[in-house]
Design brief:
The protein has 15 helices and 2 strands. It has 315 residues and is mostly helical. It folds into 3 domains: 72 residues, Orthogonal Bundle (Multidrug-efflux Transporter Regulator, Chain: A, Domain 2); 36 residues; 188 residues, no CATH class. The chain starts with 8 loop residues before the first helix and ends with a helix.
Length: 315
């Protein structure tokens, strides 16, 4: 081969912007092997060595290891398949880094205790099946003996968190708080009692979602009174109480007079059970995790309603 068509290591370094040491390293690694030797014994490289080194530098910048690069430039493995595999590996790495960033940011925002860092990291690394088991365990406790109810499927869907693969820091923090809430035995018992009571309040043959109907009825009747500044213990609250008790009697399937003390007491118990700040907390955390709009707290509505019902019973 004509030596005037070949490049020395110095030529390659000048043409590629690499150092002589780097070119020699790639040559020794078999990535850019010499095509021959000069009379003085110096290495000489074929004209395509410049293009090979440019490709090597690009692949190195993209994070490929030297062994893979050698196979690519020597055409032992196809470049497209190699790049696709590397891209998939990067996707996994990116997800891992995003998860780590979310955990670190969440812990920093919560005070940064070492034990909490470990706790959060373990929680978000749970598999989807493990997370689902935790959620199912909670929902089973809430709806233990209510699986045959017509609204069971819809109720469980509305209470199921779905932590994304690439959670934001606030979703990681919300997931940790929700897990703690789901493991609260008193909250489980309270939610189960609420679900049992509300689902039992239905007329025979009624297949509608009564918990939602009662909550919506309370909201629809009470919010105007709240906005108007009506005192729940005042005579102006009486029409609201009358309407609510009549609606509740209809739900039960045996209409009764609005002044029926037993009916009013039963409705008061239902409203008080719904006015649990942990229930609002669960809904708020669920919305953060699932990316849903932030729910409006109904606590002021329930509190006003409970006050008006107590005033009715006292009178």
């Amino acid at each position: 081969m004509d030596g005037r068509m070949l490049h020395t290591i110095g030529d390659l370094a000048r043409r590629t912007g690499l150092t002589v040491k780097t070119v020699r390293f790639y040559s020794d690694a078999g990535v850019v092997p010499p095509a021959g030797r000069s009379p003085a014994g110096y290495r000489l490289y074929a004209p395509d060595a410049v293009a090979r080194l440019d490709l090597v530098r690009t692949l190195r910048d993209l994070g490929l290891d030297l062994s893979t690069i050698r196979k690519v430039v020597n055409r032992e493995v196809p470049l497209p398949e190699t790049l696709e595999a590397h891209a998939e590996a990067l996707d996994v790495r990116i997800r891992q880094l995003r998860l780590r960033r979310a955990v670190l940011t969440a812990v920093a925002g919560r005070g940064g205790a070492p034990e909490e860092l470990d706790y959060l990291h373990r929680l978000v690394r749970l598999s989807e099946a493990e997370r689902r088991h935790m959620v199912d365990d909670f929902l089973d406790a809430v709806f233990d003996d209510l699986r045959g109810h017509p609204v069971f499927a819809a109720a469980t869907r509305s209470m199921t968190p779905e932590l994304p693969d690439n959670p934001e820091p606030e979703q990681v923090a919300a997931w940790a708080d929700l897990v703690e809430l789901m493991q609260d035995l008193d909250f489980r018992r309270t939610m189960h009692g609420m679900a049992r009571d509300l689902m039992s309040d239905r007329a025979p043959g009624d297949t509608t979602g009564l918990p939602r109907i009662l909550a919506e009825a309370v909201r629809a009747e009470v919010e105007p009174a709240l906005r108007a500044g009506v005192d729940p213990a005042s005579p102006e609250a009486a029409p609201v109480v009358d309407s609510l008790t009549a609606h509740y009697a209809h739900i039960l399937g045996h209409p009764a007079p609005a002044e029926d003390t037993q009916l009013v007491r039963r409705l008061l118990e239902r409203v008080e059970s719904m006015d649990d700040p942990r229930r609002d907390r669960y809904g708020a955390l669920l919305s953060v995790i699932n990316g849903w709009p932030e729910p409006e707290s109904l606590s002021p509505v329930y509190s006003w309603c409970a006050g008006a019902l107590r005033a009715r019973m006292a009178s």
